[in-house]
Amino acid sequence: MNKRQFLAALRTELDGLPQNDINRSLDYYSEMIDDRIEDGLTEEEAVEAMGAMDDIVSQIFADAGTSREETPKSWFDRSRFSRTWKAWEIVLLALGSPVWVPLLLAAGMVALSLVIVVGSLYLVAWSVLLSFYAADFGFAAGAVGGVFSFWVLLCTGRPIHATLSLGAGLVCAGLAVLVFFGLNGLARYTIKWTAGAIRWVKSWFVRKERAV
Amino acid sequence: MDAQLRRGLLEVCVLAAIKNEDSYGYQIIKQMKPCVEISESTLYPILRRLEAAQLLTAHSVEHSGRLRKYYHITPAGLERLAAFAEEWQEILAIHRFVTGEEEHE
């Protein structure tokens, strides 16, 4: 992880704290990383030297005097639902249920369909990538075929055809190699994006379980 | 080591590191190294607590195109260090008491 990524991740984790505290923490770690770099470490090593993100974050929260669970993270704040309900609130909730229950279900359906759509997009991306790899395999097969027919043609006394065949085979081989490395680069990006999406989805569910 | 005890001890260590001369975060860690290994994430809340208790103050100094925070000990901080030196005698006595008792058994 480089410095920019580290600080961005830290900022996300500290969401919910007063902006002042967040800025102070970011400044502190930015300075620490810079000092380590000055000392001779690479940016990646300096970031690693800061330690585990979990430790860093729980220290900051502990110092701020709040536990992570108390700080509202988003509109979907689970702690709001775990306090004791007053009688009138329960009655109102029950009376209003014909209204808010269907709305909540509808919202849930929309959210679910969005997740499915985005998920399918990733599936499509992966399928396209894999089919390109398959095509690349075709190139490699062409290379092998070219060499094979070069040999056969040479043995049957047709040197010119043989050379043509070899040339074609070599072109296929070259293309296969170039495309392979190009696809690997694409695959790396696709993996990063997919991992990022999975992390994002996970973050919706994992927040509350973090210990202080 | 007991968490509370360790935290208190680390606080006086940090104060001692800036006793004679203002220092900045990473340098404080390096200065404390012969005595105790402390990580950035542990140091941060200590500095914040000491600042809140007004045992030190912080000011920013420009360094290589960025701002570096220097920490300066206050008179109250110096008092804390002196108190620790005195407390130490008491701690030694308690230590003798605790280990001495075991010898007599």
End-to-end Cα distance of chain B, whole Å, is 25 Å
Mean of residue pLDDT values of chain B:
89
Helix content of chain A: over 70%
Contiguous uncertain segments of 5+ residues of chain B: none
Q: What does the radius of gyration of chain A come to?
A: 29 Å
Poorly predicted runs of 5 or more residues of chain A:
67-77, 208-212
Q: Helix and strand string of chain A, N-terminal first?
A: HHHHHHH
Q: Major beta sheet of chain B, specifics? A: 3 strands, antiparallel
Give the overall shape of chain A. Answer: flat
Proportion of strand residues of chain B = 15-25%
- Please report the total strand number of chain B as a whole number: 3
The oligomerization state is heterodimer
- β-strand number of chain A: 0
Could you spell the SSE succession of chain B in H and E letters? HEHHEEH
Q: Assign a percent range to the helix content of chain B.
A: 55-70%
- Backbone CA Rg of chain B: 16 Å
The pair of chains with the biggest contact is:
A-B, 21 and 17 residues
